[in-house]
Fold:
Amino acid sequence: MHKFKNSIPFLILIFSSINVLVFAGKAEDPFTPKAYVIRYWKKQISNDLPKPSFLIEKASPLTAVQSAAFSKLAANQHSLSTNLPSFCSAANLLCFPDVGPSLEKHSGDVNFKEYSEKNFTNYGSGRLGGFDSFKNYSNDGNSALDSFRRYSRDSVGHGDKFSTYARDTNVPDQSFNTYGTKATGGTGDFTSYAQDVNVPTMRFTSYSDDVNGRVQTFKSYSENANAGDQSFTSYGKKGNGAENEFKSYGNNSNVIGSSFSNYGENGNGANDSFTSYGENGNVPENNFKSYADSGNAAVDSFTSYSDQSNVGDDNFKSYAKSSNAADLKFSNYGNSFNEGTDTFSGYGGGTVTNQKFGFKGYGVNNTFKDYADKKRASFATYATKGSAARVGAMKTKSAASGKPVNKWIEPGKFFRESMLKSGTIMPMPDIRDKMPKRSFLPRVILSKLPFSSSKLGDLKKIFHAEDNSSMASLISEGLSECERKPSQGESKRCVGSVEDMIDFATSVLGRDVVVRTTDNTNGSGKKSLFPYLLYYCHSVPKVRVYEADLLDPNSSSKINHGVAICHIDTSAWSPTHGAFLSLGSEPGKIEVCHWIFENDMTWAVAD
Structure:
């Protein structure tokens, strides 16, 4: 239940991603970065309203001595990089540990339980039989960084099992290089791998190359994951009788990208199965390049692939080209809730003609370019634009329109302005910020660090971000978002210090401003990610802001004080925006409201 106090119509700033502190009766050192932020607030803000403790608490925790020392090091980027571990620890930044190679020898079967941040080099190479198990490995932490290089290479009948590996972690970075290469027999089993993780980067390079009869299974892999990328390069290349199964891979995930390059190339008798792959995902993107190219007697099956997902894109390029006697089956493929785009370029064909392709219950919005001889392909219940052959539509209905709603869109995440009145009962969405906790940098340090795509290499060196690593991706994506051109009517800036945030807000709204956020996450279910706290700030015209006391519907006791914003003009929004899927409308037809999430905030002219 929500008891609404007032609404304020005006221009507002949305910032998405501190009173003077006293310790044991002693005021904080006036020369710390946090103390400086408090003085800066007093200087730049003209009113005497209470200072926002939730903002000032995000200021740098460095002491005056530390701030001066690291500021000097920042003037020489090499010096700061050399001292990165101490800098990250003292400044409360997100940094990955430097994991060196491991030359540990394990002669027998090993069970690794509750283990993390290790580099396994030449582990299990040449093993005869035996079984190694990784259970609860790198679970429940931040920045799980693990590397498996030449793992189980040249082994015979050796089994590896990864169970509940890297579950509930933030920004895990896992690398499997030449894993199982030239192995004979044996199994690799990934169960509940990277489940419920945030911004994962998983790389499998030359995985199971030149194997003979080895079986690899991925079950519940990256399920319920948020953002991130999975990469399979030269997976199963030149394999003989290799069997690979992906089951419940990436299900219920949010904006996950998967790349399969040279997968199963020149393989003999490969049997690959994708079942419930990417099901119920939100904006998944999958790329298959030179998959099963020049293979022999390959059998590939895609069942319930991307079923009931929201939008998303799949790209098959040179798939099964010149593959002899290939048998490829797509069953109930791409029946997405909201139309995505699937592209088949150079699919099949090549120098052979004894191939079979079957599409059964295939979704809409698909492009077949340079597709092999159509006589070899069968299309059953293939849906096109405007076709009534839509398979498996969701049955959930929107209360506002009666239209189907993707279950991925959380109830209460978007709502209409008419619901903002005293006595309304509505579900409270998950407003918790699951990103790793970080602090702003002092402006004196921030101003000495590069911040542009042209200086990406320098940033990567400072933060020890290797090519294709999670950290490199986070930095690159953060810079790209910050350098994106503003949308219609938007003014934007990315800020890495409290001082910069204050400056942007006052430059748009003037000095008589107030900043608000939702008090806590009570009542809910369960920014740009950068090494230091980075906020994407933008001004949004034509909005109204509401403050509300949130009450428990059973006891009527107050459990939270929420801030909500209603966007009155949605004409420039994408038609596939989750708000329209949830509320059953289209751009420009309705206003859209949402709560201010944890660690997000709004700035407005003080009333």
Summary: The chain has ten helices and 32 strands. The two ends are 26 Å apart (CA to CA). The first strand starts at residue 2 and ends at 9.
